C-alpha cells in the first residue's frame, strides 16, 4: 500500500442489499447528459461566492461494473481497486472560472424518484482549485456529487469533497456513505435538454 493511503480510513464497505431502490439499468448515453450548476463556495471574499459548473455525463455505471469493482476489492485489495475505479471514465465536471480544474467522473448512477431523479457522481479525491489544498488533507479517499432534479430537469444538489462510499454488489449500486466536511451547496441545477426538432409540415 502506498504512503498516501497508509493509515487512512478507506471507508469503502461491502454491504448487503440496501433498502433503498436500486439504480435503474442504463447503457452508455448516445449524447452527453449535461447539467448547468451554480455552487456556493463558502470562501468569499477569498474566492468568488458563486461558481458556475458544467457537468457532462457520458455514460452510467452499470450493475455489472459495480460487481467487477467489488470483486477486485475483495480479491486484490485497496490499491488495485483504486486503480480500476480511477480508470473508469463516465464524464467530467468543469469548474467554469479561471482557477477551476476539471474533475473526471469515475462512477455515475441515478435513481428514479416520485418527481424526477437523483443523480450520483463519484470521484477520487483531488483538488478542483489549485489554490485550495483541501483534497490533500482529507480523511477519506473520494468525492461525491448528488443532484435532485424534477421531471423538467430543475433542482438542487451538493458536492462532498471528502466522502466515503459503499458498494452493494447484489443491487449493483454505489452510494455515498458519509462525509467529513460540510458539503458545498448547489442552489440551482438545470439539465440542458435539447428541444425536439420540428419535422416538415409541423406547426
Supply database-style keywords.
mainly beta, 11 strands, eleven-stranded mixed sheet, single chain, 41% strand, 203 residues
Summarize the structure.
The chain is mostly beta strands. The protein contains two helices and eleven strands; from the N terminus they run E-E-E-H-H-E-E-E-E-E-E-E-E.
Mean pLDDT: 82
Low-confidence stretches: 1-10, 13-26
Q: Tally the structural domains.
A: 1
Structural class: mainly beta
The count of helical stretches stands at 2
The count of β-strands is: 11
* Helix content, binned percent: 10-25%
Largest sheet: 11 strands, mixed
Distance between the termini: 64 Å
Rg calc: 18 Å
Shape descriptor reads globular
Element pattern in H and E: EEEHHEEEEEEEE
Per DSSP, what share of the residues sits in E-state strands of 2 or more residues? 35-45%
